[in-house]
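STRUCTURE:
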């Protein structure tokens, strides 16, 4: 793969401030678009909840299976070239997505475009995270990890909040949601073509960024890595926890937006798309981030073992907020936003324990690969339950569906009692 960049002589040494924020903003934006904006988009287009949940849950698949092709990113070309090429591909993918919306068979065509963006985004994650480790010395990695996390979260707010709000306002002005979403996706296409041009100029060229020399042992090395991960004595317990921790969330996340948008006659709250962008996409994500920061702090003070049980409960108990909303259906935006903020804070706080658990099981000589495998199971735990969530909701109604979501959290709470955690793990300063 050619390195899509100007000759070295044309480049000056770049500060991490020139590329770390933009790189991680560009990493977060396509993920939130595929996972969240697709749901809002199809709901605005009148697609039934069953179809929305089924087909958008399939879009998790690239993140489920990305450990299978991650060695290819090491084997072919440079991480830098992969980043630039994939950002260009996502720019084209979003542009084509905008162009296919007016087509009579738009559902199939737009899904195909979302698939292209999803695979490009999952591969971009591999290249970007690897490039970060190669382009910065260890001290700078620690110094800039907060910045990269902040801009990834900013992308979540921009996508789940800002772009949804924009689509809602454009729909209100024009009366045509198709035209509104064409504008949103065209803007995303322009952004990624701009990111392609920017990173082509400013990304540094680390001396270690090159094709892996271990070409002959790629297959055998991959097999050995997977074998070492599954050789754990407690592997069934570990996989059970990875797959069930988000069992409730996986179903709820696909139906929260339809619930907020559906009229009262269908059991929903009848909010506008712009209101959803403000309450769920902006306020919710801010409190999600705050919860994560608090969770990281308490684990660093007292360790994962001390906090795993209360954090697992903290993730699941706030689901009762949606039971409250479905039961009483308050009309005020402030009341809805408050309930969502509490739910998202609890989720962000508790999800930190899940991330640290994956870090713990990834200890060893194949740490990076084992963590990638764990994240694959995490994505699978989101994809499979999410596929059935629309079907379940349409048969139970929103109130009983959210009660079912609360019941679906029980398996992970029970499994938590059997996990073995080193008392000292996590009790250290987090980068």
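SEQUENCE:
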């Amino acid at each position: 793969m050619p390195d899509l960049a100007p000759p070295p002589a044309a480049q000056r040494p770049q500060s991490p401030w020139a590329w770390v924020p933009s790189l991680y903003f560009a990493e977060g934006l396509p993920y939130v678009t595929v996972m969240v904006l697709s749901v809002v988009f199809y709901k605005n287009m009148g697609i039934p909840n069953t179809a929305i949940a089924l087909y958008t849950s399939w879009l998790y698949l690239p993140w489920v299976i990305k450990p299978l092709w991650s060695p290819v990113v090491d084997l072919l070309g440079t991480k830098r070239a992969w980043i630039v090429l994939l950002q260009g591909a996502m720019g084209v993918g979003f542009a084509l997505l905008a162009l296919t919306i007016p087509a009579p068979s738009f559902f199939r065509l737009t899904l195909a475009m979302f698939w292209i963006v999803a695979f490009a985004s999952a591969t971009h994650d591999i290249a970007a995270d690897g490039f970060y480790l190669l382009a910065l010395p260890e001290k700078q990695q620690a110094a800039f990890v907060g910045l990269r996390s902040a801009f990834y979260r900013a992308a979540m707010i921009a996508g789940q909040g800002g772009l949804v709000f924009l689509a809602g306002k454009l729909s209100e002005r024009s009366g045509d949601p198709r035209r509104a979403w064409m504008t949103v996706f065209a803007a995303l296409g322009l952004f990624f073509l701009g990111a392609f041009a920017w990173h082509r100029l400013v990304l540094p060229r680390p001396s270690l960024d090159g094709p892996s020399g271990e070409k002959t042992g790629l297959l055998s090395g991959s097999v050995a890595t997977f074998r070492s991960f599954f050789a754990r004595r407690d592997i069934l317990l570990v996989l059970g926890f990875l797959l069930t921790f988000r069992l409730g969330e996986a179903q709820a996340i696909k139906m929260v937006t339809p619930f907020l948008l559906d009229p009262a006659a269908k059991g929903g709250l009848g909010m506008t798309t712009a209101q959803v962008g403000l309450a769920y996409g902006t306020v919710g994500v801010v409190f999600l981030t705050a919860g994560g920061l608090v969770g990281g702090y308490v684990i660093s003070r007292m360790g994962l073992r001390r906090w795993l049980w209360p954090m697992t409960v903290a993730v699941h108990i706030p689901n009762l907020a949606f039971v409250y909303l479905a039961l009483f259906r308050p009309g005020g935006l402030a009341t809805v936003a408050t309930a969502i903020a509490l739910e998202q804070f609890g989720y962000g706080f508790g999800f930190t324990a899940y991330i640290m658990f994956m870090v713990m099981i990834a200890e060893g000589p194949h740490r990076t690969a084992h963590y990638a495998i764990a994240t694959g199971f995490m994505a699978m735990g989101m994809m499979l339950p999410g596929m059935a969530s629309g079907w379940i909701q349409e048969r139970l109604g929103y109130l009983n569906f959210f009660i079912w979501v609360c019941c679906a959290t029980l398996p992970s709470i029970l499994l938590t009692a059997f996990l073995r955690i080193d008392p000292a793990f996590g009790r250290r300063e987090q980068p």
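REMARK: The radius of gyration is 22 Å.
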